[in-house]
Amino acid sequence: MRGRRVVVEPEREPLLPSRRRDPYPVSPVIGPEGERACAEIVAAARGLFARRGYHGTSILAITEATGRSDTAFYQYFQSKIELFALFYEQLGRDLVRHFRGQRVIEPGPAGLTEFRAWLEGLDDVLRRHSPVFAAWPLVADDALMPEDPSEQYLHVLAEEMRPRLALAGTGPVDTRVLAIAIISLMQWTHVVLDPRRPGVLPPESSVHATLATIIHSSLFPREAGAVGAVGADGDPPPWPDLLLDSSTDRADPLGAWRETAPLGLRRRVTRRAEPTIRRILAAANQAFERGGLAGTSVDDITAEAGVAHGTFYQYWEDRYAIFATLAHQAAVDICTHLDDLLRAEDESDILAWIDRWLDVLRRRGPTLHVWTTEVLPTAPLQRLSRQLRTHLDAVTARLLARWAPGRSLDPSAAAIVLWVLLGEFPYHAWQRHPVLDRDDVHRSLALLLVGGLLGARTPLSAGGPPR
Q1: CA distances from 412 to 2, 216, 452 (A)
Q2: 3-state helix vs strand vs coil in the chain, percent to 5
Q3: How far apart are the first and last CA of the chain?
Q4: Where in the chain is the domain with CATH 1.10.10.60?
Q5: Which long-range contacts (CB under 8 A, 24 or more apart) does 78-86 make?
Q6: What's the CATH number of domain 241-412, 1.10.357.10, 2.60.120.280, 2.60.130.10, 1.10.10.10?
Q7: Measured by CB atoms within 10 angstroms of the end CB, which terminus of the chain is less buried, N or C?
Q8: Would you state the pLDDT for residue 358?
Q9: Measured between alpha carbons, how far is 226 from 221 in angstroms, rounded to an integer?
């Protein structure tokens, strides 16, 4: 049985400026022609932000798309970020309206059905605002400070959510953190389900149902049952073949004195070359964090590393090759830590595992983000992506079989939620655009992983309705 789907009609247009900026040519009042010009600028910017992203869109590109001059742009907006803030505001208002349409979340099957319907409505809101959903509310641009519009809306969303959680128990996780987590999980799950990605994806409806079940279970924890022993079903599955083919040292896939080279490298890593290779890899990691794979050139990487192009090309063929090396390192870290997760004996072990995982995310977050959001262009990267996805599916199935044998979650859909829960949500909320601190992220991961995905009682301080 499906619940009543919550539909929030979009606001027709963002709120446009009511007066020209000083110095205005004749009058500060914006007349019909000025309103038309301003609306054209906003419409062109919306389309460009959707296709190119914020950093890939310049003021010149916006004005050229409208056939107007830079002067016309600056009559209405001081900067690109001020224009982009209009879309922040529109998304923020739509999110607040959607949160206000939510009923008190209740336990049991009927409460889950109602919550799933509300969550699917949230997906509609985020899809309508696809040009900005990846940047809001998880953004903290210096140009917006100290009046970052995301923070004021996060405060409103937290206040709106508090009475809806009157029957729930989330321990020390407050409503602001929970609101960010729910929005983030929904929006990045939508990105992972991009049909252009390699491999067979589960139906969107199954992923939505699984995500709703995980969040709802975290709000209404059950009494802890017996956890199965680490046995045949709990043993770690075999690693992806591509990692085994090119990794002889799981502790450090780049380690020197090996017989094979990591993925992407032209040659084996020697003792002498290792410091240079690590330096260039660290620079590439920084460059990919700023521009992504599509927006980063070899020039960007060599400038960041302070090395000549010739030095780069001794080790890698192009930017895709060096990203493959970073992806190889990240995949080894992921598989190693997923093995450890499968060996956890109780909930407290998982809390300790989360802490270690956040250290991995600090190192590998940019690589995992590119892996999640961009279509990988080379055959080795696509093959590694498929193999890692298969491995994650196997790990998730073993986790569910051991911790929650009576639950009817789709393991493939749960694997997608687990990837977003461990990757995109904490990376954006804590690392890339920090609106949460490490403790916030640790507590919310404990709530959603232990209480939500695994259906166990989270070993955090007891609490009733969240703060």
Answers
A1: 22, 19, 16
A2: 60, 0, 40
A3: 32
A4: 18-76
A5: 78/21, 79/143, 80/54, 81/141, 81/143, 81/144, 83/41, 83/42, 83/45, 84/45, 84/49, 84/54, 84/132, 84/135, 85/144, 85/149, 86/14, 86/15, 86/16, 86/42
A6: 1.10.357.10
A7: N
A8: 97
A9: 15
Which of 42-46, 330-334, 398-402, 406-410 comes out lowest in average pLDDT? 406-410
Q: Over the range 328-341, which residues count as b (16 or more CB within 10 Å of their CB) and which as e?
A: bbbbbbbbebbebb
Domain with CATH 1.10.357.10 in the chain: 241-412
pTM: 0.83
Nearest Cα neighbor of 221 from 297, 291, 152, 169 is: 169
The pLDDT of residue 126 = 85
Across the chain, mean pLDDT equals 82
Assess contact for 342 and 426: CB atoms under 8 A: no
Q: Which fold would CATH assign to domain 18-76? A: Arc Repressor Mutant, subunit A (1.10.10)
